[in-house]
From TrEMBL:
It catalyses: tRNA(Phe) + L-phenylalanine + ATP = L-phenylalanyl-tRNA(Phe) + AMP + diphosphate + H(+). Belongs to the class-II aminoacyl-tRNA synthetase family. Phe-tRNA synthetase alpha subunit type 1 subfamily. Its EC number is 6.1.1.20. Its cofactor is Mg(2+). Its main location: cytoplasm. Mg(2+) binds at residue 261. One of its GO terms (molecular function) is ATP binding. Pfam families: Phe_tRNA-synt_N, tRNA-synt_2d. This is Phenylalanine--tRNA ligase alpha subunit. It is found in: Cytoplasm. Keywords: Aminoacyl-tRNA synthetase, ATP-binding, Cytoplasm, Ligase, Magnesium, Metal-binding, Nucleotide-binding, Protein biosynthesis. It comes from the Bacteria. It is an enzyme of class 6 (ligase). It comes from Johnsonella ignava ATCC 51276.
Length: 347
């Protein structure tokens, strides 16, 4: 037994000496890793010796196993020490090689820029703030009563169908428009009111080139004494010429909205062909951009506004539609796909 133990001990000493000599000659981390695999890996020298333990007697096996394990630990530590030494040496060499020239100009950082939606909104906001309007925000999760009831939209109206509106429960919805903000402001009873209410809105629409379940609106409201449809037309004419150019013409077509009466759609003359007719305006010479009208008396009643003293007008536009028209984008999905090649055009 002692002879076999002595033989194994001599073999392990020889293996350890050989391993240390080879490890000392290593000058790269990948070569050192190959060395670790050769001695300590699943098919390495130490593993091969461990497999011979099955042929040893029960009396010899524990002592032989201890010898082999001690050798494995020593080789493992030697490799680890060499790895630390190589790493420090390589870092020192790298730092010497990559000496920084502080006289060189710094690299310019990649700076983000505004999204086309943001650019369009800032232009709209600047126009209306310049006309004395204030910007008012409101909740995106809204009561059904504010989203529909106070805006003269009855219980059986198609807009309240679950195919068109995201209901959280029977009383709470994801707002389908920013008009509820106007109702909340009117309820405060602080007149006159000149406001725009921008923000995200939600409708149960399938995604395509012109629709999305989440988009943005900018709606406006004016309430004061003696407000007429002429004030509405003059305000929106000013807005259109500021946004699209001084030569733009506008026209109003009769329409129906539950919260305004009378109601209208406003078109602007095509700013590509100046009303002559082209592909952009579908040969009509006109482009629809928003809906508007005088605030319905029922809305005043529901918001506790004295309709005998005050009159008002309201309007609303899709922010994405304005961005698509202004920058001649033919697919709304491009605004949300985060394609850097598209977005970089708006630097």
């Amino acid at each position: 037994m002692k002879g076999m133990l002595k033989t194994m001990k001599e073999k392990l000493e020889k293996l350890k000496k050989e391993a240390f000599e080879k490890i000392n000659s290593v000058d790269a981390l990948d070569v050192l890793n190959d060395m670790r695999v050769a001695y300590l890996g699943k098919k390495g020298e130490i593993t091969t010796l461990l497999k011979t333990l099955k042929d040893a007697s029960d009396e010899e096996r524990p002592k032989l196993g201890q010898y082999i394990n001690d050798t494995r630990v020593e080789i493992e530590k030697y490799i680890s020490d060499m790895k630390d030494k190589l790493t420090k040496r390589m870092r020192k060499e790298q730092m010497a090689f990559e000496e920084i020239d502080v006289t060189l100009p710094a690299r310019a950082p990649d700076i983000g820029h505004r999204h086309p939606n943001s650019i369009a909104y800032e232009q709209i906001e600047r126009i209306f703030v310049g006309m004395g309007y204030e910007v008012v925000d409101g909740p995106e999760i809204e009561y059904d009563e504010y989203n529909f009831g106070k805006l003269n939209i009855p219980e059986n109206h198609p807009a309240k169908d679950e195919q068109d509106t995201f209901y959280i429960n029977k009383d709470i919805v994801l707002r389908t428009q920013t008009s509820p903000v106007q109702a909340r402001v009117m309820e405060k009873g602080e007149f006159p009111i000149r406001m725009i209410s921008p923000g995200r809105v939600f409708r149960s629409d399938a995604v395509d080139a012109t629709h999305s379940p989440c988009f943005h609106q900018v709606e406006g409201l004016v309430v004061d004494r003696g407000i007429t449809f002429a004030d509405l037309k003059g305000t929106l004419k000013k807005f259109a010429t500021e946004l699209f150019g001084k030569d733009i013409k506008v026209k109003f077509r009769p329409h129906h909205f539950p919260f305004t009466e009378p109601s209208a759609e406003m078109d602007v003359s095509c700013f590509k062909c100046m009303g002559k007719g082209c592909r952009f305006c579908k040969k009509s010479g006109w482009i629809e951009i928003l809906g508007c009208g005088m605030v319905h008396p029922n809305v005043f009643d529901k918001c506790n506004v004295d309709k005998s003293r005050y009159q008002g007008f309201a309007f609303g536009m899709g922010l994405e539609r304005i961005a698509l028209l202004k920058y001649e984008i033919d697919d709304m999905r491009l605004l949300y796909e985060n394609d850097i090649r598209f977005l970089e055009q708006f630097n």
